[in-house]
Amino acid sequence: MTDQQYTISIAGENSLIVYFADKPTPTIAAHIAQTAQQLRDSIAQVLIDLVPSYGSLLVIYNPLQTDHYAVRAAIRQTLSNLTAHNRQTEGSLVSLPVYYGVEAGPDLQALADRAGLTTEQVISIHQQTEYRVYAIGFAPGFAYLGEVDPRIATPRLATPRPKVPRGAVAIADRQTAVYPAQSPGGWNLIGLCPKRMFDPHATPNMPIQVGDRVRFTAIDKQQFLDLGGEL
C-alpha cells in the first residue's frame, strides 16, 4: 500500500491508529486483518493490544520498551509489504448454523412483509451471501458482518428490546450479526445460532476474527437443540 492509501496518527501516549478508509469494504477488512497479523509477528514483544475496526487499526504498545517512532516505522514497513493478491487477505471461511423461523426469529415475518418476500425467501437470501467480518465490538464476540443483500436490508427497530437472547441472528441496515450473550438490542431477529461466539475459557475465545468470511447454514429445530441451542 502507498502512503496515500492510509494515514497514521497518535491516538494516545502509547498508541497509534492507522486509518485505511472511511467506509468498510471486503478489501479494507482484509488489509486490516493482514496488517494486524503481520504486526503480531513482527513486534509482538512490545505490543499490548491491537484493536481492528471498520476502517482503522488501533495499535497499543508498551512505552517502556519502545516509542511511537519505532512503532510507526514498523507499521509503515508492514503496509509497504501488503499485496492485493496475498492469500492472507482471504481470511478463514467460517460456517455458522442457524435455526431460522418465527419461533427463533420474532422479526422474520415482519421483515419479509416489508421486503415483499416470503420468510423462506428471506432465509434463502440470508444464506446465499458470504459475509466479511468488518469489526468486533459492542460486546465481546459481537461481529459486524457485511454486506447484507439489499433485498433484505432493514432499519433497526424503533424501540430496542431490553433482552435479546444469546445466539440471536439479526439484521440491521446492510449488516448482520450473532448476539454473543443476552443483552439489549435493536436489530431485527431472524433466527438463532447454537455456536458460542465468545467463550473466555476457550482458545481462541472467538470463532471468527476481523477479516474472516462467514456463511450461514440453515438447521432444523432438533439440530439446533442437539448442538446446545436454547429456546
Explain briefly what this protein structure is.
The protein is an alpha+beta fold and 231 residues long. The protein has helices at 26-42, 68-80, 108-115, 119-128, 221-226, and strands at 7-12, 15-19, 47-52, 56-61, 93-100, 131-136, 143-146, 161-164, 168-172, 175-178, 183-185, 188-192, 213-218. It has two domains: 3-89, Gyrase A, domain 2; 91-226, Cyclophilin-like (Cyclophilin, Beta Barrel).
Describe the protein in words.
The chain has 231 residues and is an alpha+beta fold. The protein folds into 2 domains: 3-89, Gyrase A, domain 2 (2-Layer Sandwich); 91-226, Beta Barrel (Cyclophilin), CATH 2.40.100.10. 23% of the residues lie in helices and 29% in strands. The chain contains 5 helices and 13 strands. It has helices at residues 26-42, 68-80, 108-115, 119-128, 221-226, and strands spanning 7-12, 15-19, 47-52, 56-61, 93-100, 131-136, 143-146, 161-164, 168-172, 175-178, 183-185, 188-192, 213-218. It is elongated. Mean pLDDT is 90; it is low at 84-88.
Which descriptors would you attach to this protein?
elongated; four-stranded antiparallel β-sheet; 5 helices; alpha+beta; 231 residues; Cyclophilin
Give the CA-based shape: elongated
User: Strand-residue fraction?
Assistant: 25-35%
CATH H-level homologous superfamily name of the largest domain: Cyclophilin-like
Q: How many beta strands in the DSSP annotation? A: 13
Overall pLDDT: 90
The CATH class of the largest domain, by name, is Mainly Beta
**What strand order characterises the main sheet?**
5-12-9-10-7-6-13
The total number of structural domains is: 2
